[in-house]
Design a protein that fits this description.
Blueprint (H helix, E strand, L loop, with lengths): L1 H30 L4 E4 L4 H4 L9 H8 L4 E2 L6 E10 L7 E12 L5 E8 L22 H7 L38
Length: about 180
């Protein structure tokens, strides 16, 4: 009986170890970052077919599709942006691969230049911790308190000045939304 029990326990340990090993190995594939393609997914074979001096805007649209964006001050600059990102827990997505293709056309619509940029060409942009000033008056707390003195008159509704009908009834609400004359008593 004791020998049979130890044999059963050994088999259960082997099965448990096998299940744990399978769980760990399958977990590796589950937690691996999944690449997420974004933007204009273009290949080098596509934009290498464009020849400066001979290719036109129509050729670029046929090969690459519509551009991701255009130049801010020059409509003849077309920009194709593509990147592959992956999710990071409790953080912004990570960038695995990034590529930018810049096409510049002349006024006639012929391609003047083609330039490719990679992630190595990127420049980091840091946020600054300054406050943007806004136009208007800047008042302190004392000015805010003193500015409201005299605006509240509890007797205003009794005299009929705040009601919309001019009857001056005590139960009538003439607060905010009713010509802003204050609360009723």
């Amino acid at each position: 009986m004791m020998q049979q029990r130890s044999h059963t326990m050994a088999r259960l340990r082997k099965a448990g170890s096998l299940l744990a090993a399978l769980g760990v190995l399958s977990g590796c594939a589950v937690f691996r970052p999944t690449p997420i393609p974004r933007g204009s997914l273009i290949e080098a074979d596509d934009y290498n077919q464009l020849i400066p001096g001979t290719s036109t805007r129509a050729d670029a649209v046929d090969l690459l599709g519509s551009s991701t964006t255009r130049g801010a001050f020059d409509d003849n600059t077309w920009i194709y942006i593509s990147m592959t990102t992956y999710l990071r827990p409790i953080d912004f997505p990570g960038v695995k691969k990034q590529q930018v293709v810049v096409l510049k056309f002349n006024q006639a619509g012929t391609l003047d230049s083609l330039r490719t940029l990679s992630r190595k060409d990127a420049r980091p942009v840091a946020m600054i911790s300054q406050v943007t000033p806004t136009p208007g008056t800047s008042i302190n707390i004392l000015q805010q308190i003193l500015g409201n003195v005299g605006r509240y008159n509890p007797m205003q509704n009794l005299m009929g000045a705040g009601s919309t009908t001019g009857t001056g009834m005590m139960g009538q609400n003439s607060g905010p939304g009713h010509f802003g004359s204050g609360n009723s008593l």
